[in-house]
Design a protein that fits this description.
Pfam families: FMN_red. This is NAD(P)H-dependent oxidoreductase. InterPro entries: Flavoprotein-like_sf, FMN_Rdtase-like_dom, ISF_SsuE-like. The protein has 179 residues and is of the alpha/beta class. The protein has one domain (4-177): Rossmann fold (3-Layer(aba) Sandwich), CATH 3.40.50.360. The chain is 34% helix and 22% strand. It is built from six helices and six strands, in the order βαβααββαβαβα. Strands 1, 2, 3, 4, 5 and 6 form a six-stranded mixed beta sheet that branches. β5 (114-121), α5 (130-140) and β6 (147-155) form a beta-alpha-beta unit. α1 (17-31) runs parallel beside α6. The two termini are 13 Å apart.
Length: 179
């Protein structure tokens, strides 16, 4: 039986490079027989965490927006896949905001074990993903049953859709297939 995989695309652009990378990962995961759901935050409202810590007692954030639904889907997934553009050598602000809003999961019986990071950047250097990797690893370190299972980076892509012939698409497909 396949795994339940949740892919969250954090780009606000249509046909963004990071979303196309996510779609390639999804293609591989589906080919391997997994159930895959993608959430694009493009049309979602996710407010900043207020730091009130009420979620530690209620298991749910007090903010009534799309962040609660996404956190609920994260809770039930076997595998989480975060697809983000790299802004200033770090994950997008949208991604960081959602990771903060996933605080209710900290005390919950979450299912996810494997987490993947898919990232794209205008900078061609492989080190462009390092800040995002550090941030994701920090988040994962709060979930002792989870691990960073892999990362795929596509550098040198800036304009929407520019990734179309990039070798990272095949790597993302294969990574998805091997989940």
């Amino acid at each position: 039986m396949g795994k339940n995989i949740l892919v969250i695309s954090f780009s606000l652009r249509k046909r963004s490079n990071s979303e196309l990378l996510a779609d390639s990962f999804m293609g591989g995961a589906k080919a391997a027989g997994h159930h895959v759901e993608k959430i694009s935050i493009r049309d979602k409202r996710i407010d900043f965490c207020r730091g009130c810590l009420a979620c530690q007692h209620t298991g749910r954030c007090v903010i009534g927006d799309d962040g609660n639904d996404i956190a609920g889907k994260m809770l039930a997934a076997d595998v989480l896949v975060f697809a983000t553009p790299i802004y200033y050598y770090e994950m997008s602000g949208q991604m960081k905001t959602m990771l903060d809003r996933a605080n209710p999961l900290y005390f919950a019986d979450y299912r996810f074990r494997d987490i993947y990071l898919l990232a794209t950047a205008a900078d061609e250097g492989g080190n462009a993903i390092e800040g995002a990797l550090t941030g994701v690893k920090g988040w994962i370190s709060c979930f002792e049953k989870a691990r960073l299972a892999g990362a795929v980076f596509a550098g040198g892509v800036d304009q929407a859709g520019e990734i179309e012939k990039h070798p990272a698409l095949e790597k993302a497909y294969q990574t998805g297939k091997e989940v």
